Amino acid sequence: MKSDHKDLNHIEEEQLPIAKHKLKGWRHFLGLYAGEHVAATEFVFGATFVALGATMTDILLGLLIGNILAVLSWTLITTPIAVETRLSLYTYLQKIAGNSMTRLYNWANVIIFTVISAAMITVSATAVRFALDIPAQLNWYPTNAWFVMVVLAVGIIVVLVAMYGFNAVSQFSGICAPWLFVMFISGPLVLMPELANSVIGETSVSSWRDFMHIGSVSVWTGLDANGEPGIGLLEVIGFSWAANTITHFGLIDMALLRYAKKKSYGLCTSAGMLFGHYIAWISAGIMGAGTAVLVKKSITELDPGDVAFHALGLSGLVIVIVAGWTTANANLYRAGLAAQAIFSNLSRTRTTFLVGIVTVLIACFPFVFTKLLPLLTYAGLLVVPVGAIVFAEHFLFPKIGLTRYWVTYKKLEHSSAAVIAWALGLVFGFTLNAINIIPFYYLFLPTWVFSIVVYIFLAKRSGAAHKYPEEEADLANFDKKVERFHAEQAANEPSFILDKRLLTKVLTSVAWLSLGITVVLAANTMFYSPDVASYEYNRTLFFNSGFACTIIYFVCAYWAMQRKKQFSAV
Asked: Which residue, 249, 392, 409, 413, is the most exposed by fewest CB within 10 angstroms?
């Protein structure tokens, strides 16, 4: 048995399908997507829809439709491929497109994740700059030397953690999701009386009609920052659907969803979409508009630090720093992995450091977060043709009589069909954008279809139409060998022991209780502030007590997490 598996021990685990004993349940993916898609950038996106002049009806309906479409994209496209192959996109791409295509794709990932990481660092820096009374950075370039120093300081920490402490940050970010949920619920509750007073002259909102009226007059007015008619329902749907094309149509989330026990777990992405990209974007819009009323500025003059502090007090600065920091670390880690795959002679730590230097320099320029939604959309357009190639090979080839994995069977290092299809897909997509036939946030759809058609045509002429019975038999034998190898690993896997010790239970209970108190304080500010004086008192009470609850939550939740880890390791 050992000799049978000897060759597998020399293959990186990343290159093998995920073993059955390592698969995760639905609760894991609910928490994973809730944590990843409820981040500091929600303040940016929430304010963006206000500045673009959407109406309240368009926001409530458009964000719902767009995010449901995103969930369905994960469920019907990404998750089935991930579950059936148990491979990441990078490994799958190696099998169907060869080394040259994979190298090009890794370069694209380095660029994309570097920009996203830079945006997160800049967002975190806005909280620090607010605490230090540094002016808001409203241009695409930095206008204050101290802001640059803040970005460099925050960025260096992010780079060092991504290099050496990513596992700890990943574990810590898991406990942030419940707290982030509470913060995004509490912010609008705290600021709504301020908005109500500015619109209807009262601090209380007594009906849904009042809420719609206040939102339509002071938040989503239908007019953009220049006072002109803004975007409509179709634009809101497109923005919210296209914001995650990198991960669903672009298939990058195969890396996460390959651990899912069932294909239906793709629906768990709704924890991120319907809360993080629906409720949180709406909440952020209300918080941004409320802050604009408080400080008597346009929402376009505010950054996440401004909004978070005025909505949540010191807890707001924490949310911007922590959410931006954890998201930046995850994406910088991904960028370092992609760079290491390109420069295989360098360690992952060194490539992360080199990529991190570039990331921090980019983060000094505020445009990376002020233009984040268009940047994400165009980044999605960059990788969508690759997702189309994988979709065609996995789903369509068996249905139309072509051979899946034909590049591997022919032992090709370079797939001209894949590279040309990707290149033509990019030319097609960006040409459509240049001639402005359709709005840019819908460009991924025709680009995806076009890339599929081109790839099928080219692959059929390059060898996909042939049969490879011997090679298919060899692959089937290899898969069986991997299954036996994983079965042997599972037999030696230590069993998980649930920590039921009293102190761990107490710490967990106190952490959840602190979150409950925070929501109660926010609701008290919203519903029990009959006049301005009582509102100001309740808001101050929320700021002070809410921050104390934030400290208690993180101390108790982190302590409980550490105890559980130590107990399981015994």
From this structure: 413
Q: What pLDDT was estimated at residue 370? A: 66
For residues 364-378, average pLDDT: 73
- State the CB neighbour count (10 A cutoff) for residue 509: 12
- Judge whether residue 537 has pLDDT over 50: yes
Tokens linked to 345 = 């002679």
Phi first, then psi, for residue 193 (nearest 5°) are -60, -35
Residues 319, 138, 355, 155: is their CA dihedral positive or negative? Answer: negative
**Residues pairing with 24 in the sheet:** 260
Q: Which residues of 332-358 are buried (b: 16+ CB within 10 A; e: fewer)?
A: bbbbbbbbbbbeeeeebeebbbebbeb
Determine the Cα–Cα distance for residues 291 and 312; give it in Å rounded to an integer: 11
pLDDT the model gives residue 395: 93
CA 345 to chain centre: 30
Q: What pLDDT is stored for residue 484 in this prediction?
A: 76
> Mean pLDDT across the stretch 384-409?
93
Q: Which residue has the higher pLDDT, 126 or 355?
A: 355
Residue 207 DSSP symbol: S
Give the separation between CA 204 and CA 187, rounded to whole angstroms.
Answer: 16
Q: What is the DSSP string of 500-543?
A: --HHHHHHHHHHHHHHHHHHHHHHHHHHS--SHHHHHHHHHHHH
Nearest-5° angle of CA 35, CA 39, CA 45?
135
The tokens 């230090």 sit on which residue?
132
Residue 363: name the closest of 131, 162, 161, 126 by CA: 126
Joined tokens for residue 11:
């293959």
**Minimal CA–CA distance to 421: which of 455, 456, 464, 449?**
455
| Dihedral pair phi/psi, residue 463, rounded to 5° | 140, -10
Question: In this predicted model, what pLDDT tens digit does every residue of 147-190 receive, in sequence order?
Answer: 888 888 888 877 887 777 556 656 666 777 788 888 888 988 99
Residue 498 is predicted with a pLDDT of: 65
Q: Please give the C-alpha separations between residue 174 and each of 55, 429, 557, in angstroms, as whole numbers.
A: 34, 37, 10
Distances (CA, A) of 79 to 29, 70, 108, 261, 490: 12, 12, 22, 10, 24
Question: What is the residue whose two structure tokens read 């010790």?
Answer: 501
What distance in Å separates the CA atoms of residue 48 and residue 302, rounded to the nearest whole number?
A: 11
Mean pLDDT within 473-494: 75
CA nearest to 22, candidates 32, 13, 33: 13
Name the burial class of residue 270, with classes exposed (0-12), middle (13-18) and buried (19+) by CB atoms within 10 angstroms of its CB: buried
* Residue 300 predicted with pLDDT over 70: no
